[in-house]
Amino acid sequence: MSVLMPDVNLSLLLPEIVIAVVAMAMLLMAAWAGDQGNRSMVAVVAVSAVILAGGMTLLKGGTAAAVTTFSGLFVSDRLSSFLKILMCVATVLPLLLSWDYLKRHRLDEGEYFVLTLCALLGGMVIASSGDFIVLYLGIELMSLSVYVLAAYRRDDPASNEAGLKYFILGSMASGLMLYGISLIYGTTGSTLFSHVHHALAEGHGVGPALHAGVILVLAGLSFKIAAAPFHMWAPDVYQGAPVSVTAFMASMPKIAGFAAFYRVLIDAFAPLHHQWGPVLQLIAIVSMVVGALAAIAQSDLKRMLAYSSVGHVGYALVGFVAGTPLGYQSVLVYLSIYLFMSAGAFAVILVLDHAGIGEKIDDYRGLAQKKPSLAFLMALFMFSMAGIPPLAGFIGKLQVFMAAVQADLISLAIVGVLTSAVGAFYYLRIVKLIYFDAATDELTAPIAGMSRLVLLVAAVVVLVWGVFPSSLIHWAESSLKI
Amino acid sequence: MDMLADLVFYLFAAVLLMAALGVVTVRNPVHSVLLLVLAFFSSSALFVLLGAEFLAAILVMVYMGAVAMLFLFVVMMLDIDFDLLRRGARDHLPVGIAVGGLVLFELVVLVAGVRLDPSHAHPGAGLAHSNVSEIGRVLYSTYIYPFEISSIILLVALVGAVVLTARKRSDQKRQSICEQVARTRDQAVELKKVASGQGA
């Protein structure tokens, strides 16, 4: 019996293989070291593995035209490389800035890092998927790891609740998406993105069933990036999960979700842009409005950042709605900038957690009198998130709105500008609390070395990309060139 | 013959949908699990109609045999006031008989009607090998990449289950084997002289 083997080119998968093998080795290392062993060893290995995988992706760079292996199931191109590098950065920064937090709360068990690496692996699988089955498996691998991470503080009821909520709602979203995928398979006869694209371009299978499938897939993906109206889980999960996990959740899975959007919308559904464009436009508008209005009423900083991330997702989706090369490129720019702003804001929260300051917004009163440098950095990240020039957040929004205007979506751009003006209110409120309110107590704890490093990197990136964005824009542009 | 196959399909599909609806609407969780079993069974019957016996067998073995039974155990460990439920047992009897009768009926139809029409829309009809070997062939060649990813997902599920449940708790009593083995006779046994008539 002859078996037809697919074309296998394992060298394309090298970064993924590194992450998978190291994650499994770390399981053994953690078990070997036991409870008393040297715990930071596993953390060092995890961080170096992610840096290694990111470096390999960077060096390989990817080719302009897509190279596939495993009979088209795995796709490697410049876009996937760009997204994978972003994901590696989005994994390393939270790991570094939560270094001390994990030690202090006794969360630095080997399994924490194994799950983080598996989540990253899922994200990388998504970025390189060429088939709906692989895409779904990547999303499940990532989500499952993050569910467990959200519930990681087992003694804390809020953390348990966060994990359970995320799990139940996430499974529901996965079910919807699977149903959508089955409808698409049923109408086009294939799960391969390229085949679906081909069938749609020739008008095969286009009908109500296919449209329902497309919308179900979009709904499932929107849940994963917490776009309104599929954002209900985000505030509770962000608030309940350990801060180190929230910092991770706010960046890596979001980028992976957008990677899924790239793969599905461009590689598979591109001929149907006139159909999914309006759907995404609605999701983008609702996200921007919810993000701007709901965040105002929050008293918990993590909840506020959750709503703010809903808003950021809305702005980034505007680029997809445009559906032009400039639009796709602006999403990459927006995500790269958001990643560093979010890492910076969470670094400040984690540093202050060490100093015994809570996560309530009121706890930040008069921070400038206690810690001028930290207060300055927090203000910097808040200004950047609000989109005030000359910081990087402004460049991200500018790119996205430019793409919308260029694609004749003037009303969408106007909604975006209005909501970011409203959103600026709650970012500036924090700056006001930090600088103009009186402090209530003293603060003496030192800032840990690792957090200082992350804060510095994030601040420099936010400033440099704000003033000289051309390198980033050029990189994003070249990643999408075919 | 075609029409008969269609008829059987619609029968099983209708039962499947009704059972699935019942899972979420029925009050009693035990009934809910039993309806879930019915849903699994009906969908496995649909697979048989498609000529995918292997998938049908897997569905029966894994879902009905393992998963549904596990659910049943979990549900039975829940703190449900069965007296309250039993009070209405006579009301539930028709439902129970209906579900049991349906499963029996489906079984009969299945056994009698598996070979209704072998040529009707069987994706695997023209293949020389059996279902199992075809699936194995595809799984280990074309779909080896998703297959490997699934294995990592299972690993994560395993690690997650251990991480979330196995923990040291202060209110938990654990067996210490070292201490048990190191115990001497003097520590374990105490001899008491009891005067006759003073015991008890």
Mean pLDDT of chain B: 80
Major sheet size, sense and barrel closure of chain A: 2 strands, antiparallel
Which band does the percent of strand residues of chain B land in? under 5%
CATH class of the largest domain in chain B: Mainly Alpha
Could you tell me the mean pLDDT of chain A? 90
Number of strands of chain A: 2
Q: How many separate structural domains of chain B?
A: 2
- Alpha-beta classification of chain A: mainly alpha
The CATH homologous superfamily of the largest domain in chain B is called: NADH-ubiquinone/plastoquinone oxidoreductase chain 6, subunit NuoJ
**Model regions low in confidence, pLDDT < 50 over at least 5 residues of chain A:** none
Describe the structure.
The complex is a heterodimer of chains A (482) and B (200). Chain A has 482 residues and is mostly helical. Chain A has helices spanning 14-33, 39-60, 78-97, 99-104, 110-127, 132-150, 157-188, 193-201, 208-224, 233-240, 243-249, 252-268, 273-294, 301-322, 325-354, 367-370, 372-386, 392-406, 410-436, 449-467, 470-480; strands at 67-69, 74-76. Chain A has a domain at 298-482. Chain A is built from 21 helices and two strands. Chain A has a two-stranded antiparallel ribbon. With 200 residues, chain B is mainly α. Chain B has two domains: 1-85 and 94-120, NADH-ubiquinone/plastoquinone oxidoreductase chain 6, subunit NuoJ (Four Helix Bundle (Hemerythrin (Met), subunit A), Up-down Bundle); 124-151, no CATH class. In chain B, α1 (2-25) runs antiparallel to α2 (29-49) and α2 (29-49) packs antiparallel against α3 (53-77). In chain B, 16% of the residues are buried.
